[in-house]
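Think of the structure tokens as a kind of shorthand, similar to the way a musician reads notation: each symbol stands for something richer, in this case the local conformation of the backbone. In the example below we present two proteins back to back. Begin with the first one, reading the sequence and then the tokens, and try to describe in your own words what changes along the chain.
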Amino acid sequence: MKMKKLMVLTAAASMALSVTACGSNNNNGNNGGSNSAATNAPSESTAPAGNAGTDNTGAETAQITPEDGATLMVWESKEERAFTDAIAKEFTEKYNVPVKIEELSPTEQVTKLSQDGPSSLGADVILIPHDNLGRAASAQLLLPNDVFEQETIKNNTEAAITGASYDGLLYGYPRAVETYALFYNKSLVTEAPKTFDDVLAFGKTFTDKSKNRYGIMWEVGNMYFDYPFIASNGGYLFGDNGTNKDDIGINTDGAIQGLSEFKKLKEVLPINSGDINPDIKRGLFNSGDVAMDITGPWELAGYKAALGDNLGLTPLPTVGGKTAISLAGFKIFAVNAYTQYPNAAKLYAEFASSKEAQLMLNELVGSIPTNLEALEDPQIKDDPYVSAFAEQAKNSQPMPSIPEMGNVWSPVNAALPEIWDKGVDPKTAMDKAAQQIKDLNNGTSK
């Protein structure tokens, strides 16, 4: 069902809610795989029947039933296998449809589907980071979420719906969202900082490079984690809620203002970007030699084990007096356009992304729901860590899902070290990156 009227969600970019890492468990969730066009994408004339979708309503939803003899294959990440085993068992008990599970990193699933889908070898239901959606949808690899469209829109955050949609169509079934927040060691930081000026002031009293001790550490060369410095004062990646490839906002006045704040923090983290990686940062935080860390929920279990009651978690400090805007990534189910059992596949995607399923996923894996009722459940609201991620995610933006998002990472991840390591003027560095992105988008890069 076309829903362009719904997709101009003016506040969508600021209404996410956090979860598990956007792409498997790779500690940064940022690369999302290649966004080049799928090599074996079907043309319009060869796309499977049903790819255009139907116009079902909520009243018809209750009448959908699995096809006779239906069986399903589901691709799932290794890290979340416990959830999939449990939810697949419940689905089979309810619908009498056997479910086979194959482990495959979410960031690899669109590529594999482009190869295996036309030969009917791909999974019936896939799990992907939402920023891979544009690539899959533009290659006609997915069926729209038509039967459960209205329920999905009603039950989930606006940002989740934005992330699960492409070119005005809802394709995905959101199940979890992830962003990052500020971890801190309560034995070192008595009060969570409210502003990055507070971080800077604390760092001046704590940082001692000769002792390899720092007030804060994060992956300063990685745009995923640096996005608050681009966006909080008005910068952005692509305009029109991340859909306009020709409107690049990484070098706007607001972005440059925020990146000037970013540059100041080098004083309390006086090491080059290439000398920071997740393993180094994790070890220093666990040992008490880093007092604060900007990272995501994938580090939560390890940090709790290392610090116990001394572990604190809070939304990101303000940037230049403005609320910090982080990037949000969603994991969404989607249905293979070549499935032999579209009804059963859609039922599974809906069943495994329901309120109850999202609460189960949180319990087993630690993810943050996108379902509105699940977010208000005591299981989520009473957890100080999960609720902190959820609070930050209210001020996050969905990562753009257009294929051109793949052209952003390299230029920006080259510009940020220029600013941090070499002290290059942010405007100079980001103007260069913006031009590189434009050239890549237009196929004119050298």
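Once you have a description of the first chain, move to the second and do the same.
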Amino acid sequence: MRLSDILHLCRQNLWRRKSRTILTVLGVIVGCCSIVMMVSLGEGINEINEQSLKQMGDLTIISVYRQNSYDTDPSTSTDGKLDDKAIESFKQIAGVTGATAQMSLSYSVTMTADNGRYVASYGDIQAIDMTQLENMGYQLTVGTAPTRDGEVLAGQYFAYQFADKFRPESSNMRSQPQDMGDGTYMVCDVNDCEQVPADQLGDDAKPFFDPLTTKITLTIQTGDNASGGSVGMSGFVGALGDSANDSGISGISGSGSGSGSGSGVRGANGSGNTFELKATGLLKQSWNKGSATSTGILMDIAQLKAMIAKADKSAAKTTTYEQALVKVADIKQVADVEQQIKDMGFSTSSYEEIRKQMEEQSRGIQLALGGIGAVSLLVAAIGITNTMVMSVSERTREIGIMKALGCYVRDIRIMFLGEAGFIGLFGGLIGCLVSAAISLVINVVSLGGPSGETVWQAIVGGENVTRISVIPWWLFVFAILFSTLIGLISGFQPANKAVRIPALDAIKNDQ
């Protein structure tokens, strides 16, 4: 028999008992939907976890420290020295796209803007090698990177820490809006809090001044007025150099290589510890790159060193540092790079361990939910087997006639396997379509109701889109192939039973 004839017989035989075939296919649809939806819920949990981690910071950043960071004299440590040479060695590791040490100013500082009208009694001043800014994945919400001495980058919410000294205490500061991750912000005042869309933020939710158009005057408190002490710890990281036994070293914490002499840093008002800074851009907040991306100032390492040297003549030059940042090209390479850095004698921290734990939890949930769905498909498989056994019993005489006319045994087997396979295939296809519709409805409802934007977001997702059900393309392919395979396996025993029936006995059979 030709394949086309076999396929024609399969279609004819399935349609001969419409009700039974439809009910059997319905069982496969339910089983397929159960598996797809259960696994899609697990994928949704995984996507939510990943978005939560992304809100915490860059997942491909590794923070590197000296192992004995509590030791005030790095020269006595047997661990690897975190110096310029070590930073260069990090850059040579396969998969690393950038590396820089990080400095943090541990002196107490005050900042003013707009000729002293706006005042901040504290400040988080950090520095990196600005040549590595792009390689390290720092993002700007507006503006450009610094190109001259005296130019810096301000944190995304830098201006919110300034108070207006011409206003009453109850209204002399603006509250920083909290990004809710769904295109809205939580805005609070002295009375209550309100969640508003990003495009509806009023003037009351904005800072008093624009850091990009207003010069910032930074005053470093040194000597008797310095609160840092001989061993300073900034808001992000404390650090010491090779000459930590000199009390002046307290002004620098965590450092690395940087270009430029810093000669362009200039004092204001005739004071050696006051500096005028111009912000050329606003950084996007990323906590694992440092709190300066949120409310501080980020500048080049050489510039910060020059400021320290000018403000505190007793500050000694440092060549070893407490912290560095390493950027990896792919999140899958983070664990391997982190291990290589540990093998060099350094301590590390990243979100990799947290990500792995959340991934394992998601995988366990997916397996549990997938197992629940598999039970439904197992019931459907039993239904297919029952349908095919009944079909063989009802068509015994037909089988005998086919054999008597010279039909090959393999053709009879292929015919019955084809019928069972078609039941699984049709059930899988319809089941995937139904699952896609259910998933779409769930996501659209969770995103706030039907609209052109929410429907598109429910399908493709997005950076700030939280989907409850996520169906990757491979899940559809797997469900269809698995349903077809279940049909073929379920029809194998009835097909073998059909080919074992003797031709003469089959012809004599009344059915």
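Compare your description with these statements about the second chain. The chain is about 45% helix and 15% strand.
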